[in-house]
Write a structure and sequence with these properties.
Layout lengths: L3 E2 L2 H21 L6 E7 L3 H17 L2 E7 L5 H13 L5 E4 L9 H7 L11 H7 L11 H13 L7 E5 L6 H10 L3 E5 L6 H5 L4 E4 L17 E4 L3 E4 L7 E4 L4 H4 L5 E2 L7 H19 L2
Parallel strand pairs: 1-11, 2-3, 2-4, 5-6, 5-7, 7-8, 8-11
Antiparallel strand pairs: 9-10
Helix pairs in contact: 1-10, 2-10, 6-7, 6-10
This protein binds NADPH dihydro-nicotinamide-adenine-dinucleotide phosphate.
The site of NADPH dihydro-nicotinamide-adenine-dinucleotide phosphate has 25 residues, from helix 10.
């Protein structure tokens, strides 16, 4: 292996420790504990698991969590009223609406209802709009892309002036990751399902963020020697040697890429642990803004 491994578990643990220490200081100074409200609509098993992990992290770091669950057939009005109530509640510093919402609900309208200073997921249209504009800073940055950039910075990868390629243009990962890289002075190409010659584009990348959800699509011979690879993808690959019958792999063929890249994140243990760590960091920031 020539690439340096970027260990998301260790980096995420350090972020969590820093957040816990800051919270302990706030509480010792007589300030209220930060509070995070989660809103789960419906009964998707994966969404319920994510919400539980976020609540567990809150408990570990000293953040109060307030869980709210609505049935899958909740109306737009019911969801918006709950979010408005939480926006007005001084105990709640951050509001996380677990996505995706059931398809009959208007996601953008729900996200718009979150008070912007409590938008710890960073998906409020104003925060995303500011991310897209030069010289305007969002209050919060979406957690997974924030984690990707944080990993690059912690690894000492130079972003300024680099050629960066982002595979995927989703609202939650690809697009905000590209905007963050532009904000840090990278020259960015975003690839999606209509892009021609993706291998040729990836070969130009000093930095690659892969977020497409396709098992090991990026091959070792697509990688520019010395490039930094951040693999966001989480895919299950059949593996009869595992008790579950599968294992988790990324969008990048790790075994091939690690022989060419300069830095690489593993899956699991790379970007995955960063998402919740950055949510905790955003919740702390929200509390600091609201209780200066
Ligand atoms: P989406 O399905 O929302 O978006 C996928 C993007 O990839 C789209 O822009 C799509 O293009 C593009 N794409 C799909 N197939 C191809 C292809 N063959 N060639 C080129 N582009 C393609 O996914 P997400 O952004 O939500 O997630 C991406 C991956 O990241 C998933 O594996 C997900 O599990 C993982 N993930 C991991 C997180 C973590 O914490 N580590 C958090 C969030 C996601 P188009 O726009 O044209 O359709």
């Amino acid at each position: 292996m020539t690439a340096q491994l970027i260990d998301g578990k260790v980096i995420a643990e350090n972020v969590r420790k820093e957040v816990a220490e800051e919270i302990a200081k706030m509480v010792a100074a007589g300030k209220p504990r930060p509070g995070l409200a989660t809103v789960l609509v419906g009964d998707r098993v994966d969404s319920a698991t994510y919400v539980r992990s976020k609540q567990k992290a809150c408990a570990e770091l000293g953040i109060e969590s307030y869980g709210h669950q609505l049935p899958a057939d909740a109306s737009q009005k019911e969801v918006e009223e709950l979010v408005k109530k939480l926006s007005d509640d001084p105990k709640v510093n951050g509001i996380l609406v677990q996505l995706p919402l059931p398809s009959h609900l208007d996601e953008e309208k729900v996200l718009q209802t979150i008070a912007i200073e409590k938008d710890v997921d960073g998906f409020h249209p104003i925060n995303i709009g500011r991310l897209a504009q030069k010289g305007r800073d969002p209050l919060f940055v979406p957690c997974t892309p924030y984690g990707c950039i944080y990993l690059l910075e912690q690894a000492g990868v130079k972003i300024d002036g680099a050629n960066a390629v982002v595979l995927g243009r989703s609202n939650i990962v690809g697009m905000p990751a590209a905007l963050l890289l532009i904000g840090k002075n990278a020259t960015v190409t975003v690839c999606h399902s209509h892009t021609r010659d993706i291998p040729g584009v990836v070969r130009q990348a000093d930095i690659l963020i892969a977020a497409i959800g396709k098992t090991e699509m990026v091959r070792g011979d697509w990688i520019k020697p010395g490039a930094a690879i951040i693999d966001v993808g989480i895919n299950s690959k059949p593996d009869p040697t595992k008790s579950k019958g599968y294992r988790l792999v990324g969008d990048v063929n790790f075994e091939e890429a690690k022989e060419v890249a300069g830095w690489i994140t593993p899956v699991p243990g790379g970007v995955g642990p960063m998402t919740i760590a950055m949510l905790m960091k955003n919740t702390l920031r929200a509390a600091q803004i609201q209780n200066p």
